[in-house]
Amino acid sequence: MEGHFESVERKAEAAHLGMWLFLASEVLLFGALFAVYSGCRVEFGADFVVASSHNSIAIGTTNTFVLVTSSLCAALAVHGARSGHLRRAAALLGVTVLFGLAFLVLKGVEYGEHFQSGIFPGSHYHYAELPTHGANAFFTLYYLMTALHGLHVTGGMLALGVVGHRAWRGGYSAERHLPLELSVLYWHLVDVIWLFLWPLLYLMH
Amino acid sequence: MERETSKSRERAWPLVLAWVALAVLTSLSFGARYLPLGVFATPVALAIAVAKACVVLTWFMQLRREATSVRLLVWVVTFTVVLACAGVMGDVAFR
Question: Are the C-beta atoms of A1 and A7 separated by less than 8 Å?
Fold first, then answer.
């Protein structure tokens, strides 16, 4: 018996459902931004295409491979935990966090390049090569969406760091590692959101 | 925990295969960026993104193993986001 649940299995199912409900709320949060983006794309179609070409495809693509590979490490960590290899799981979570850090560093490099060109969000935008309202709207949305995503990456890294540390210290077992599984679910969602941000912000032409 | 011990017999190679699929699809998106697809460029890129999301949901997040209520939740949220995007696009286009 686990608390007021009739069995440990029921507790795990309830925890998974709760986590998926949380992930759904996160998708709706980003969904609102995607809806705004969709409207602006219709309004400023040509400007959005030109503005997106000023993002670094190399950095965006590298970051996609980084997050996808980090998701593999996280999934392998769950597999390791279920098999009772908790130390291996912890190490894989550590690698996942490092991939997250690499993602943020690359994103920071891209932000720095934009700032040097005068590409800032909102009324601070003064990029001489693209002085259009559409380009301003694109980059404002770019900062809003990528910064919000970056915050989620940071949150995911913290969560994986905590559960990874606990796994390394022997706080979990093959039978009991629910926090590890739920944290990894969150990390995969961060990956999924980026899979849609990448084509919308980098691949238009 | 029966739910977890039954999973512990799973092999790791499907996860690696899923990553290979994701890498191939990502390369496909990158390559399509340089093809003369015209108005189909964004739909093609988004279709590949949907395929990648399905791979992550199915193999990494193991959605197929979750309860029916969870799978229903994913469909409802997806439909809501698509409806919101389509509604806003329609509003702007036909205003």
Answer: yes
Alpha carbon distance B19, B52 (integer Å): 10
B87 to chain A, closest Cα gap in Å: 8
Q: How far apart are the first and last CA of chain A?
A: 57
ipTM of predicted assembly, 2 dp = 0.93
A197 Cβ contact partners less than 8 Å away, ≥ 6 residues apart: A145, A146, A149
Range of the domain at B42: 1-61
My answer on whether B86 and B57 are in the same domain is: no
Query: Do residues B56 and B78 share a domain?
Result: no
pTM across the whole model: 0.93
Distance CA A86, CA A89 (A): 5
The answer to whether domain A8-202 has CATH 1.20.120.80 is yes
What confidence tens digit (pLDDT) does each residue in A31-78 have?
999 999 999 999 998 899 999 999 999 999 999 999 999 999 999 999
B56 in the same domain as B77: no
Q: Per the structure block, which two tokens stand in for A126?
A: 């003064």
Top residue of A71, A175, A183, A189 to mutate, by most chain B CBs within 10 Å, is A71
By CA distance, what is B16's nearest residue in A? Answer: A72
The Cα–Cα gap between A105 and A100 comes to: 9
Q: Are B53 and B31 contained in the same domain?
A: yes
Q: How many domains does chain B have?
A: 2
